[in-house]
Design a protein that fits this description.
Elements lengths: L2 H5 L17 H30 L11 E5 L2 E5 L1 H17 L2
Helix pairs in contact: 2-3
């Protein structure tokens, strides 16, 4: 094999070729915290956009904005916006690591 082909194989910290070491315990804890932060941002963005669009009486087509009645309050919500915003912010947080 060429030296270039060997350098492309994943290896662990002790030099064994072809074996990838698992992530450290602290790394998964940090990813869980990033996911919680991303979901918080997704909820804030979803509520803000849904409030602006939903208060005008529109469902915004594929955004699927709908009114949720909690007690005496009417809250607008959109699951597609929430999932998209959470995924986007989680990706941005992973890029910043």
């Amino acid at each position: 094999m060429h030296a270039l082909a060997l350098s492309c194989l994943p290896c662990s910290t002790d030099g064994r070729l072809g074996q990838v070491s698992p992530p450290a315990a602290g790394a998964t804890k940090g990813m869980a915290m990033d996911l919680i932060k991303a979901m918080t941002f997704g909820a804030i963005l979803s509520a803000t956009v849904a409030l602006v669009v939903g208060s005008q009486g529109s469902s915004a087509g594929p955004l699927a904005i709908h009114a949720v009645h909690l007690a005496d309050a009417k809250i607008y919500w959109s699951w597609p916006i929430f999932l998209s915003a959470s995924g986007l912010s989680f990706g941005i947080m992973l890029l910043q690591r």
